[in-house]
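hey so i finally got around to running both of the ones u sent me last week. sorry it took forever, my laptop kept dying halfway thru and i had to restart like 3 times lol. anyway pasting them below in the order u listed, first the sequence line then the structure token line for each. didnt double check formatting much so if smth looks off just lmk and ill redo it

first one:
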Amino acid sequence: MRVVRGRRGDVNADREVGAALSAGVEATGEPALRVWAPHRQVAFGRRDAAADGYDRAREAARQRDYAVVEREVGGRAVAYTGSVVAFSSVVPNREGEGISDRYDAATDRLKRALRSLGATVRDGEPDGAFCPGDHSLQGVGKIAGIAQRVRRETATVGGCIVVRAADESAIADVLTPVYDALGARFDPKSVGSVEAAGGPGAPEAVVDAVESAFVGERRVERVAAEGVLRDV
């Protein structure tokens, strides 16, 4: 398994790593994993882009010094503060492996990772959570959400993890006007974190634990984010 560490210098450059990761899996048939803390940004989904208030939502994010990007999955907006952790597991899309199987496996691994850090987490999310979905983890509020994108040759399971308790209010501050503009429900009190659930407020510790849970016993080839692009 190829494991990518770190991030590139800015939001747009860093997003190129995801495409390169998928291309590498398609070319080699070997799975790849990236766990990192993206730059400060609000990532909007396809449903957001179709909303009447999308332009106002984007402007609300920019006014609060967040970069604005669009992601390919269909979920609602997610805020990254610079210490929120993201993960992306890319595997060959093999016959016999279903969407539900991949969701279940990713959820189990993520729970195992966060519990190993001392966080008390369980399936589900509170009412009014950001990026609501069926595949989420909660403690004292929503901690993590998981999404999936399936292409002909590859399947990507990814998500975000709120790490620091201090980020709960920061996320609520930006997503409240964003969701209001989109006409979507959001309860600022629904945001949780690993730290509030009893784990560490250190993104590096969460990165290590999630990486370990997804790698398992596989042999690992570690590369920096810049190295992935050089190999394409």
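and the second one:
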Amino acid sequence: MSSIVVFGAGGTAGSRVTAEAVNRGHRVVAAVRRPEATSYLPAGVHVVTGDATSEQSVLELAPDADAMVLAIGGGEHGLWLAAARNLVTTLRGMPDAPRIIHLGGGSTLLTPRGTRYLDEPDFPEEYRPSALGQAEALDYYRSSADGVRWTYVSPPPLEFHPGERTGHYRTGGDQPVTDDQGRSVLSYEDLAVAIVDEIEQPRHENTRFTAAY
């Protein structure tokens, strides 16, 4: 059994990671900004007020954690970089520091031409600020996260929706995992499976991976 802190446990992705981890018998701390709005989380989850951009929150929750999942959503452009930087700088040098699992953006994956999906001419403008923010977070881990253990997880760039938990998926690196029709598809539920699998059996430390069917 691991002790897992989930920042953003009340969101679409974070709630599914929380449920998956609890169902496997892990101890889960849901760190959210509004604990009163998380009554839908499964029994056994310890809900606390927490903020991934707060050094104090990380200091309070890190000592008992094996992993800290960053599954925050929304917010301004710089939110993901601020959270990544705060976790890295706070955990660096801490004895037995928890591993960081950052749920990042699929738009940071590379097209067959080697360009990022977020740089494509037809990329929706309304999603560009958050995509750029997630890209900055990934660049930060790659360039400045020495001294900590981290993993950046990218869902498919386009077809990623709530759905069914099948327990099956395939993993890749910087390009989407595609099926025989060239589609990269995954449910939030199965991304949660992939994340908890990675916590239980680390295969992508200090790198990024993606998952799809």
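quick thing i noticed on the 2nd:
The chain has a mean pLDDT of 95.
anyway thats it, ttyl
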